[in-house]
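User: Just a sanity check before I run the rest of the batch. Below are the structure tokens for the first item. I only need the designed sequence back.
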């Protein structure tokens, strides 16, 4: 399996597709958002620092997330490929990554902004990491995987979502050109169902 980055706006479906890829190909799913949220829950010094940025819909400082990812990529389970979800999201992060890793492909999950607002507005998540959308839950409020209560992520409030989208346009979208210049970008039109998108992703991963 390749070393893959998933690019895409907040709510595009990076986490959803990353989970499917990692299950299918048996590689680790490295989500900086998930790592930061775990630290917030555990009340670590990193979590306490990260919380104020995340709650505002801003990015956590580059040096913090770069260190996290460098540590994670040095672990043994990353030797046979991995999926990076939500990292890099600034040019300095991408430059730092290029120094420590060989990225094969950047899959750009491309969704119109209007659709993103409805994907995030209906997102429900579980402590165990599972993610759902109200449109497919049929009123169910418990996690299908572990039975725990589902909840709404703190940064999915409408005003925070607007800020996250602005930050994405200013700081993360330029990465499409950064990896495009390296000939690594594959665009996936991601307006279809989760399964349809995953079928396209599998075609490009081979
Ligand atoms: P992070 O956790 O990475 O959030 P994000 O990039 O905003 O992306 P999301 O997780 O919100 O969306 P997603 O694309 O994973 O979509 P999902 O699959 O859940 O980051 C959070 C924060 O942490 C940042 O704001 C920042 O503060 C900090 N941070 C993280 N990384 C950082 C970094 N590198 N540098 C600095 N700061 C960093 O899907 C969304 C919803 O849509 C779900 O309900 C899902 O069920 C549904 N859905 C998915 N696909 C479909 C489909 N095809 N059709 C219908 N519904 C769908
Ligand atoms: Mg995610």
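Assistant: Here's the designed sequence for the first item:
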């Amino acid at each position: 399996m390749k070393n893959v980055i998933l690019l895409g706006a907040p709510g595009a479906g990076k986490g959803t597709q990353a989970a499917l890829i990692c299950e299918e190909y048996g590689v680790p799913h490295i989500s900086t958002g998930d790592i930061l949220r775990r630290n917030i829950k555990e009340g670590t010094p990193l979590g306490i620092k990260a919380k104020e940025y995340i709650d505002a819909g801003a990015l956590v400082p580059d040096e913090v997330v770069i260190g996290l990812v460098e540590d994670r990529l040095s672990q043994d389970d990353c030797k046979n490929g991995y999926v990076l979800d939500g990292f890099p999201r600034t040019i300095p992060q991408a430059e730092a990554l290029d120094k420590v890793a060989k990225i094969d492909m950047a899959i750009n999950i491309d969704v119109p902004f209007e659709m993103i607002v409805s994907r995030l507005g209906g997102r429900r998540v579980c402590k165990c990491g599972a993610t759902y959308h109200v449109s497919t839950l049929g009123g169910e409020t418990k996690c299908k995987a572990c039975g725990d209560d589902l909840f709404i992520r703190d940064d999915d409030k409408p005003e925070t979502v607007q800020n996250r989208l602005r930050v994405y346009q200013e700081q993360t979208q330029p990465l499409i050109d950064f990896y495009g210049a390296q000939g690594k970008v594959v665009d996936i039109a991601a307006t279809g169902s989760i399964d349809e998108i995953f079928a396209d992703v599998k075609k490009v991963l081979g």
